[in-house]
Fold each of these.
Amino acid sequence: MSKNQMSSPPKTVLITGCSAGGIGHALALEFKVKGYRVFATARNPKSMKHLSEKGIETLVLDVTKEDSIREARDKVAELTGGKLNVLINNAGATYPVPSTDIEIAEAKKLFDVNLFGVMAMVKEFVHLLIASQDGRILNIGSVAGTINLPFGSVYNATKAALHSYGDTLRVELAPFGIQVTTVVTGGVKSNIARTDLTLPADSLYQPIAAYYDYRLKSTSENSNAVSAEDYARRVVKEALKSKQKIWLWTAASSTMVWFFVTFLPKRVIDNIMSSMFGLSELAKKFKAKKKAD
């Protein structure tokens, strides 16, 4: 190793959504292991206490507030001399409710976090990425953005929009030497799942409320899901490559979903989803009720 290589500063990465128990937290630790200078961010600094204890720099950041994003950008620029090598847009939330039970205000909040927050982060940090001369952006997407998972239409829509945004962003930023990867994430054990929701009393899906409750629980307790640490290793490995993949399908069930959406007709997928989520059973109940009436 040359003297210049030994004295060169470590590469830098900023990760959103690094609260304990999530994949952002695991990503921060894995980048640290790989020798990166890590800026871990979250709305609540107390949720990143473990990262601080590991020597990782933490910043308060709310991706839904432009002033908060600019403050974080200015702080990173001050600490790094105006450069950032990698931006990981990970902050996200879920809203698992049937399409006809959506509260529009809640849906807008989800888009603010999962989509518009990413757009705002890219806008404010792009010049730091360009200055690094090897900028990378990894947007944490989801298999839910590629397949019609019932009771998740809002979340699915945010991720589908994120994927489309990332595809265009990749082309637009290529002239500046910035690589953009969409990470199509399958099942990962994390704290993002919500189990606090119940169907409204007047929901069309009350006849299969047991299926709905089961799906909420099974999502949070998915035994096939990979650990956040394993997921982080896969993503960081990709981020370290000289040429990143355009889309990285990874974690539990991601290969299966890729096969479904690539080779199966949509009506076949519809039937699979209907069976898995109790909608075929609902159809039987509805037909029986119509006959009785």
Amino acid sequence: MTTGTADGTWGPVPFFTQARTFEELWPDIRSRLTEVFEDGKFSHGRQVARFEEALARWTGARYAVGVNSGTDALVLLLRACGLEPGDEVIVPAFTFVASASSVVLAGGRPVFADIDPVTYAIDPKSAADAVTPRTRVIMPVHLFCQMADMDALLDVAHHHRLTVVEDSAEAIGMRWHGVHAGLLGAGGVLSFFPTKTLGAIGDAGAILTDDPQLAEAAAALRHHGRYGRTLGHFPGISNETTVNGVNSKMDDIQASVLLAKLTRLHEDIARRARLAAAYTERLAGTPGVLRLPTVVPRTARTDPVFYVYLVEVERRDELAGYLARHGVGTETYYPAPLHLQECFAHLGYRRGDFPHAERACERTIALPLYPDMSLDDVDTVCALVRRFTTRRPA
């Protein structure tokens, strides 16, 4: 096991890097980029269309619509679903701010619910309790390594005649009853932010749906409301707009990178699973580690995918500082629950409204997990965590 160098220092383990991945994929990426430059179409071009088709095949979606970020994907999907001003969307209080800000940007009103303390996903009972006559959408967010309880959430949606929009930004590869995340309700989204399981070299995202009308509407909204070149083909772009859209087209450089990385996505997911298993083995029983990731067994056949390795610990912020001083990067998911953030203060929530979400924000920390990591890197991180929790100075 790696325990540091002879002079007492520790090798750096960044929270994320894909340097080795890009070195291995560079010949393929360079070939695709050369095609982009020769074609002279840098946005919304042939590489984007090819990526949309490849992503649809990989996920099993009938349609994949490329856009320029996961956040835009949520905004456009909500608008395509017909969200109207003042419509309420139920969102978990423990998630990235974009889950709720997308509702505001689409004209709706976020209504928060508490989370399951084990899966960190929205609690179906709390979601059901949040339904009002103005509720239009339930937005489950699939976080970290597993999906929300979609059977229970779909039952809630069916009972109240609500639309389900999945924030599956982190969930590529996750499946429920064999159906890919994002395809259980009206549609879902993916983020290709560089740290994601399938990451670009900048911002990019996609909408997944099996509904042709929803796909067509979302694809038009991403291009100023103009129809044409919307579902993976090139019939020509209409100059007439029928709805106010935005400029959220995916660029072809990002699509080129994503196409290359998609060829090894299964391998990368398997590598993440092996690293997560190594973490679990090495951290089991560590004092001060309150909870390791737990994949909840359910009646549905579920396919977990480790996006990050999230643990709950005592003295979370102190541990993050300690690891940083020894060259190990971490991330806090999430430092404050959404219902207590200033941008949502007007909604009137108070501390104590969602205790599971609040507790998670105080104790969770994500340790490095990405395909370029080695088992020695995992050993280094775990050794440092143990040293900190047992109060032995390095």
Amino acid sequence: MPSHMVVVGIDGSPQSMAAADWAALEARRTGRPLRLVHAWHPLATDADYPLHAESRHRWVENRLSAVHQTLAERFPGLRIEVERVAEAPVKVLLAEEAELLVLGSRGLSGMSGHLLGSVSLSVIARTARPVVLVRADFDGRAEESGTVVLGLDLRHYGTAPIDFAFRAAAARGASLLVVHAWNPKLVYGYASAPLDEELTAELQEREERSLTGVLAPWRAKYPEVAVTGRVTAGSAGRVLIEAAGGAGLLVTGHQLDHPGHSSRIGHVTHGVLHHAACPVAVVPHDGAPDGDRDGGPAA
């Protein structure tokens, strides 16, 4: 079982510094300790250029000490640990006993460009715990006041992302927007004939009723959270990215077939990781079969 701790990976980059800020806010908000982890994989060239390796490690060490001191001053009373490990970052992060992993993201906003660290993608694909990706331009004030957005696929969902989103909204005193996107072409097929407006409206109502049914037990469990459900016909990735504009946190699920083994990151999750401007929480789950709409919270 993961320990009751927030772990953030630090590599000295601006995005990892922003991730440390987000992680400290989350640790304070939830009453959990914080661990700053710096892992590096010794390069073969380090033996040939020891001064270069020493300079690189000294630079990261200075950044690590600076962020530790800054967070200790900003969050008095917060328990902060520092861990340094000379091993591959992915291996170290996967071995961490943590309730939540936080990493920096170089993802780009907008709908073009693809730039995301291989460490982040590798960890997300293999870990059985939630991972939050934070961009370098993270604004803590916006995060504290912004809406929490949950992307929910009604045909393949798990309860873990739903619970994570409701708890995040409750902890922040924020509203929760639950977004489900459906594609009429998957119902009609890809024929060139125009879509039938009456049938489309009926299917839209069906999706809305399904979302209402899924959320009902969660509304009862978290009565303090103001929840809005939104069903939109269109590309799930684009719908989520647009819904997350100005949000404090975007939550999406990742179906993990075998914890500890790499599972393919779906195109929707992959898209929001690259393009969403706000922090993104990827919550692994075991999925639910098509048509299973009874995934409420445990009593």
